[in-house]
Inverse folding.
């Protein structure tokens, strides 16, 4: 094991400097405010959870979990997502209330990185969960709310891609015969390796008709025309029900007046294995990864002893800020430079201005080596230097 450098940080960890901190706070506040307007109540859960409960319920791969032992020998994990912890809370404490429950959160998540590749091991998500509503209307609400919070953040160039995990599963199992073969083919979709997908399909011992159906599946992207094409491919009832859910969803999001932000992409699958139905990802210009994702996870609460429908989504704050570009929302900061004999006067003046809502720095002039460099940092500078009682000089 090599010796660590003095300023070295754990793999994937990042410092947040003042300008970025202020930007994050501004964007986070915009998202949270809009979520509250839609009736979502914020909740907080511990950063540490038991591996045997939340750790195993989470869809995050085991090698990405940060694990440690408590004093009693129980394995703990730093929370890798928020959906599983909120499912735990809802199942244990909230489901006795009138359903559905609308919860929101803003939290740091932790996923271990195997090598340095620019991906953070700690990042913040802002998201919502609607628990106890199994209707397509709830899925439509998630999508409309996602559009609304992104617009409120100032983002203009974005799109939601919507798929259905149930449709993909039914189509693949129907053609390939079992879930193991279906999962093998689905892996190419996880990786968005469409060349590999095509080559794998061509290598399978299938009829030419079934091979063409699997290849035609890759073209199921676009608007309402995708519904008809999908119904032509699928033969079993469960698969057709999934497509009819998407047709109903389109009508709902049209009523919300957000259809211009939406595209169907039935090749969309998620590494989050608990998704059971409609799911979506959010893409924005100049960002190579989804800035948010969500979907229906009707089976997750069963792991905590309760059975009910649920859906939600989360926005990655770091990726949203990248998509927004440079944001100059830093509040102006005033400075009062004073000589020691006028300290009392300076403290009183600073108090008055802070009460008025201004941000004010008090700086003893004897501690300033470069006066020009110091004053350039602030929006306004007041000098209280010399004998007490003099008028402030700006």
């Amino acid at each position: 094991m090599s010796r660590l450098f003095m300023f070295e940080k754990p793999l994937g960890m990042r410092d947040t400097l003042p300008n970025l901190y202020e930007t994050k706070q501004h964007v986070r506040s915009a998202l949270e405010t809009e979520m509250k307007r839609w009736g979502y109540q914020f909740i907080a859960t511990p950063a540490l959870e038991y591996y045997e409960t939340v750790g195993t319920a989470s869809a995050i791969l085991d090698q990405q979990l940060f694990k440690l032992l408590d004093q009693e020998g129980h394995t703990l994990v730093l929370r890798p997502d928020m959906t599983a912890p909120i499912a735990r809370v809802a199942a244990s404490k909230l489901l006795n209330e009138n359903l559905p429950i609308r919860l929101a959160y803003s939290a740091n998540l932790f996923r271990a990185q195997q090598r340095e590749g620019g991906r953070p091991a700690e990042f913040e998500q802002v998201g919502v969960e609607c628990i106890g509503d199994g209707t397509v209307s709830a899925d439509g609400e998630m999508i409309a709310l996602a559009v609304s919070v992104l617009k409120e953040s100032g983002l203009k160039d974005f799109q939601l891609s919507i798929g259905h995990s149930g449709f993909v599963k039914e189509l693949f199992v129907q053609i390939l015969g079992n879930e193991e073969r279906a999962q093998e083919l689905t892996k190419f979709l996880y990786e968005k390796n469409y060349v590999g997908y095509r080559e794998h399909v061509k290598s399978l011992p299938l009829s030419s008709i079934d091979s063409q159906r699997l290849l035609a599946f890759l073209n199921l992207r676009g608007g309402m025309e995708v519904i008809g094409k999908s119904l032509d491919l699928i033969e079993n009832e469960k698969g057709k029900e999934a497509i009819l859910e998407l047709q109903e969803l389109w009508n709902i999001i049209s009523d919300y007046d957000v259809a211009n932000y939406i595209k169907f992409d039935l090749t969309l699958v998620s590494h989050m294995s608990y998704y059971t139905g409609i799911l979506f990802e959010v893409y924005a210009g100049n960002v190579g990864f989804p800035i948010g994702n969500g979907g229906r996870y009707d089976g997750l609460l069963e792991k905590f002893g309760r059975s009910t429908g649920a859906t939600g989504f989360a926005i990655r704050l770091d990726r949203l800020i990248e998509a927004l570009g440079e944001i100059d929302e830093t509040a102006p900061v005033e400075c009062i430079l004073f000589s020691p004999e006028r300290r009392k006067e300076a403290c009183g003046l600073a108090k008055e201005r802070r009460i008025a809502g201004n941000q004010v720095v008090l700086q003893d002039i004897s501690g300033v080596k470069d006066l020009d460099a110091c004053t350039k940092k602030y929006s306004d500078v007041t000098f209280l230097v010399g004998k007490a009682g003099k008028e402030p000089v700006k």
User: Anything to note?
Assistant: The mean pLDDT is 88. Residues 18-324 form a domain with the BirA Bifunctional Protein; domain 2 fold (CATH 3.30.930.10). The longest strand covers residues 101-110.
